[in-house]
């Protein structure tokens, strides 16, 4: 059996990044190493995980593009659904995120906004598709 088990974001400060997601999206911390270079959040069957740039560099010998706050976000996004997009966007901004695309309503009725998290990763905050 094959399962999609986790997504790992490479970040400078694992604990800080995990705290942003815990405080903003109410995702409890499942695990963090004593060295605080890797951790996982409880987000359902698929975990949202974080690895320090230095740990990732030791695993990915060919290197990778790191997320830079001055650059546009990568062409990938994390998505969180909520009944109250306005409230969750405001909470994310309070916790250090930056509004990237303001709230819009799609032709199919879904409310969608985009933020950049504290590590410049793109996060979609939206209602469920009806």
Could you please describe the fold and organization of this structure?
With 130 residues, this protein is an alpha/beta fold. It has one domain: 2,3-Dihydroxybiphenyl 1,2-Dioxygenase, domain 1, CATH 3.10.180.10. 22% of the residues lie in helices and 34% in strands. It is built from three helices and eight strands. The strands form two sheets. It has a four-stranded mixed beta sheet. Strands 5-8-7-6 form a four-stranded mixed beta sheet, with helices on one face. InterPro entries: Glyas_Bleomycin-R_OHBP_Dase (IPR029068), Glyoxalase-like_dom (IPR025870), VOC_core (IPR037523).
Low-confidence residue ranges: none
Number of discrete helical segments:
3
**CATH architect. name:** Roll
Mean pLDDT: 95
Query: What is the strand arrangement across the widest sheet?
Result: 1-4-3-2
Would you count the extended β strands for me?
Answer: 8
Helix and strand run = EHEEEHEHEEE
Biggest sheet character? 4 strands, mixed
